[in-house]
Amino acid sequence: MYTQAMDTIGKDGNAEPKAPLRSADDLLAEAPLQQRFDAAIDAGDFIEAKDWMPEHYRKTLVRQISQHAHSEIVGMLPEGNWISRAPTLKRKAILLAKVQDEAGHGLDLYAAAETLGTSRDQMLEALHSGKAKYSSIFNYPTLSWADMGVIGWLVDGAAIMNQVPLCRCSYAPYARAMIRVCREESFHQRQGFEALLTMMTHGTPAQKEMVQDAVNRWWWPSLMMFGPADADSPNSEQSMRWGIKRLSNDALRQKFVDATVEQARTLGVTMPDPDLKWNEECQQHDFGAIDWAEFWQVVGGEGPCNRERLGARVKAWDEGAWVRDAALAHSRKQAARVATAQVAA
Ligand code: FAQ
After folding, report:
1. pLDDT per residue as tens digits for the range 79-122
2. What are 231-276's pLDDT values in tens digits?
3. DSSP code of residue 232
4. Closest CA to 271 of 230, 214, 310, 228
5. Which among 230, 254, 261, 299 counts the fewest CB atoms within 10 Å?
6. β-strand 284-286 against 277-279: which pairing, if any?
7. 312 Cβ contact list (under 8 Å, min separation 6)
8. 228 lines ligand 1 (CB under 6 A)
9. Is 156 near ligand 1, meaning CB less than 6 Å away?
C-alpha cells in the first residue's frame, strides 16, 4: 500500500544515502557557517545553491520542492483527460498549452531541487514507489468539461495564492523558478475563469448547471490544497522561520476565500458552504468546517483517483524507457566523436 509519504527522501535512507555522522570538530568548524546562514536569513537575504546550509534546511527544501514538482506533473493528468474532448479548436489549443506549461513547471522544479544534491532519478523513484506526496487536489476525477474551467479558476487560483509568496522564498533557485511559474499560472487562472464566464453568460441551462456542479465538487478540495490548519501543520513553524514559507496555511486559505467569493458573484455561481459569509468585524469571510478526515484519507493514498494517477505516471515512465536509452546512446556517441576528433587534432 503506498502512502504518498514525501518525507521518506533521506529519512529512511532508501531514496538518498544517509549523511555521515559529523564529529565534534566538524560541528565546531560549522559554527561560523551556521552564524552566517542565520544572519542571512534574518536579513531576508537569499541562499544560493553554492552557499553552506544546515542539513535540515536542505532536506525541507528537497521535500517541498520535489512534492511541488510531482504535483505539477501528476496535475497534467486530470486535464489531459479532456484534451481530446475539448468542445472547440480554441479551447483545445488553450488546454494543450496549459498542460504543456505544467510539464515545464515540473521540469523547472525538479531542476531547482537537483541543485540541492538530490537527483531526478531519486525523486522520481520516490514518486513511483508511492513514498512521495503530491497535491491532494489531483486525486479527484474530472467528470465534465466545466471541470476544466473550474480547475483553472479554483485550482490554479489556489496555486497562485500559495506560490506568489514563494517568489520570495529564501532559497534563490526555488524563488526564481516560482517567478516564471506564477506568470504562467496567472494565465491559467484567467483562461479557466473566462471559459466559465462564457458558459454562465451564453450557455444553456444545462451548461450552467454543469458549471455549478463542478464548483460544488472542487470548492472544498481547493481549500484543502493549502494544507492542514496551522495548529496541525508540523512543518510550518520551522519553514516560516527559515523564510521558505512566508505565509501560513490558514492565512493563505483565508486570502483565497476572500478573493474568490467576489469572482463567484461575477460568474453567478454559489459556493457549497451555507456558513460562508462576510464578517464585518474581522473584515474577512467566515467559512464552514473543512472535512480533514477526507483530506488525510486522500493524502494517505485512499482518494478517489490515487491509484489511477500513480499507475499512469509509472506506465509513462516505463514506456518512455526507450526514449531515455536512445537519448543517452546518442549523447555518448557524440561525446565519443568529440573525443576522437580531439585525439586526431
Ligand atoms: N496535498 O506541515 P504541513 C499546482 C502534507 S501545484 C498533499 O503544512 P508544509 C499547479 C505535507 O507535505 C500544487 N499533502 O506541510 C497546477 C506534510 O507532509 P510531510 C502544489 C499535503 O510543507 C495547477 C503534511 O501534509 N503546490 O496546483 C498537502 O509546511 C493546475 C503536513 O503539512 C505546492 O506544492 C496537500 N494539499 O506545507 C498543476 C506548493 N498539504 O511532507 C496542474 C509548494 C500538506 O511532512 C493543474 N508547497 N500536505 O510528510 C507548499 O507550499 C507546502 O508544501 C504546502 C504544505 C502548503 C503544500
Report:
1. 999 999 999 999 999 999 999 999 999 999 999 999 999 999 99
2. 999 999 999 999 999 999 999 999 999 999 999 999 999 999 999 9
3. G
4. 214
5. 230
6. antiparallel
7. 77
8. yes
9. yes
